[in-house]
Amino acid sequence: MDDEDLGRADTGEHRFEAFRQAEALVENRRPLDALKALEPVLEADADKPSVQLLAGRAYFHSAQLKHAEQAFTKVLELDPSDHYARFVLGRTLQRLGRLVEALGQLRMAWAMNPVPEYQDALSEVNARVRLQEG
C-alpha cells in the first residue's frame, strides 16, 4: 500500500471499491478473499443492510454458518422487508439442520416474492421436515 492508498484508506471511495471487489470475489466463489476485502467496509459501515448481506453471502459460501446467520439476521433487523435476506437465512438455517426455523423464513421469503427458486427451496425443506416427523 503506497502513501496515496493510505491517504484514502478510510474514505468512502476506498470502501466503495472494497465493497465492489468483495462482490466480485463472492460471485467468483472466493468467499474468504471477499471477507478480507470487505473488512474495512464492515468496520465503517456495519449498520448498512447491503454490507451485512454481502458479508452473510461470503460467510455462507465459506461454510461459516453461524456468522452467516448473524449477518442475515442483522439485515432483517435493519430491513424486515428484504425477501432475499429471508431466503438466504432460511438456506443457512437449513444447512445448520434447523429445518423448522428454515421453513418459516423460506415461507416468508416466498410470500414476499414468489419466484421459482424460493418455491423450490421451500418444497425441499418442507419435504425434509415431513420425513423427520414421519
From TrEMBL:
<dbReference type="InterPro" id="IPR011990">
    <property type="entry name" value="TPR-like_helical_dom_sf"/>
</dbReference>
<dbReference type="Pfam" id="PF13432">
    <property type="entry name" value="TPR_16"/>
</dbReference>
<feature type="repeat" description="TPR">
    <location>
        <begin position="49"/>
        <end position="82"/>
    </location>
</feature>
<keyword id="KW-0802">TPR repeat</keyword>
<protein>
    <submittedName>
        <fullName>Tetratricopeptide repeat protein</fullName>
    </submittedName>
</protein>
<dbReference type="InterPro" id="IPR019734">
    <property type="entry name" value="TPR_rpt"/>
</dbReference>
